[in-house]
Amino acid sequence: MSPKKASDKQRPEMAPPDGATSADQPRHAAYGGEDAARDAGERSGSKPVGVAAAPERSELPDDQDELRAQIADTRSELGDTVEALSAKADVKAQAKDKVDETKAEAKEKVEQGKDQARQAQAQAQVKLTEAGEQAKQNPAAAAAGGLVALLLLIFLLRRRSGR
């Protein structure tokens, strides 16, 4: 005979390993109060569900048309609930929506980048125009700047060609 484990000592409070319950041990006693509440149609939350949610006979309307209207409303609500759950469970559609959302964000960022580039180009054009006007006002400084630019260009070209 094998020695008993510590977990075997706690077994009497739980259901047998095969899931069967004895006559003196109802199923909810084995698995806890939540199971008994679920069997009774209660939900761990706000409203009861299932049989527990059914109205008492005294609460039912006497008028058949009113009862039919209530049934139609309930069917409509159930349809909406099923539709919402189905949309939540549709992983493909959620992934497609996420891809579409990401594409839209990327397009927006590209447009922002284009706008910034246009603004930078306009600012550079303004500065170039200002530099041209300053060169017209001071031709000696413009000639010196041109000479420096030419020497820098020659230096860079020689360095690039490996000389």
Tag the structure with descriptive keywords.
2 domains, 163 residues, 6 helices, mainly alpha
How would you characterize this protein structure?
The protein is rod-shaped. The protein is built from 6 helices and no strands. Mean pLDDT is 77; it is low at 8-12. Helix 5 (91-137) packs across helix 6 (139-161). It is mainly alpha-helical. It folds into 2 domains: 27-89, no CATH class; 109-161. The chain has helices spanning 6-9, 27-31, 33-39, 64-89, 91-137, 139-161.
SSE map:
Elements: H1 6-9, H2 27-31, H3 33-39, H4 64-89, H5 91-137, H6 139-161
In terms of per-residue confidence, which ranges show pLDDT below 50 for 5 or more consecutive residues? 8-12
Broad structural category? mainly alpha
Number of E-state strands: 0
Whole-number mean pLDDT: 77
Rg over alpha carbons = 40 Å
Write down the domain tally. Answer: 2
From the spread of the alpha carbons, the general shape counts as rod-shaped
The major beta sheet can be summarized as: none
Helix residue percentage: 55-70%
Alpha plus pi helix count: 6
Strand content: under 5%
